[in-house]
Amino acid sequence: MSEKFLGLLSKFSFYNIIGILLVLTYCTPSVDRTPYKELRELAFETEYDDIGIQNPNGKTVVYGIIMDWPTQSEIVTLATFLSGDASIFLTSGASFIGGGGRERIQKSSLRLIHKYAYLWKQGKKVRWTPNPDLDQVRFFFLTTQGTYYLEDTVSEIDADTSTLTPMFDEAQAVISEIRIEAEKEKDDDDE
């Protein structure tokens, strides 16, 4: 009888372990269960004619800048376009889409692109969009000739020793404008 009991106990333990593994696998937070991944992909798939930019006749035009910024708790992706649109996507699932209809966001987005578009020439061309890196801040330049990127470590940017720090600061200004507008919308919804 004790052998039978031990056999049942070992089977029970096996099934408990499988059950716990299934729960851990399917019940933990995941980027794949938020709109982040899809929204980020849509931003990278945006073409110049999607935002109303005329055919540049062979001239290279930077029509968008996308920043991936790893924070302590999540990845923040900022997408800005020459149309003035700016969106922010967080791996937590929060997002603010559009923004081009709001003058302050539009001006801030355009300022970022106009000020730093020239840096695309220093970037590496990408054939596919790399996933965000937990240690690197990346700036992607969407151009009529493809996508290019520059990156530096979060620590270099935080220490103000990176050549990308001024661009990062300008991107933060766009994020600040988005936050202000999001707060206004929240306040309007609360009334």
Layout: helices, strands, pairs:
Blueprint: H1 2-26, H2 36-45, E1 62-70, E2 75-81, E3 86-90, E4 95-96, H3 103-116, E5 124-126, E6 136-143, E7 146-153, H4 154-158, H5 165-190
Antiparallel strand pairs: 1-2, 1-6, 2-3, 3-4, 5-7, 6-7
The total of helices stands at 5
Tell me roughly what share of residues is in helical segments. 40-55%
Give me the side-by-side strand order of the main sheet.
Answer: 4-3-2-1-6-7-5
Low-confidence stretches: 4-31
The average pLDDT is 84
* Strand residue content: 15-25%
What gross morphology would you assign? globular
Helix/sheet category: alpha+beta
- Give the radius of gyration: 22 Å
Number of DSSP-assigned strands: 7
State the order of secondary-structure elements, H for helix, E for strand: HHEEEEHEEEHH
What count of domains describes the coordinates? 2
Task: Report the biggest beta sheet as strand number plus sense, adding barrel if it closes.
Answer: 7 strands, antiparallel
Distance between the termini: 70 Å
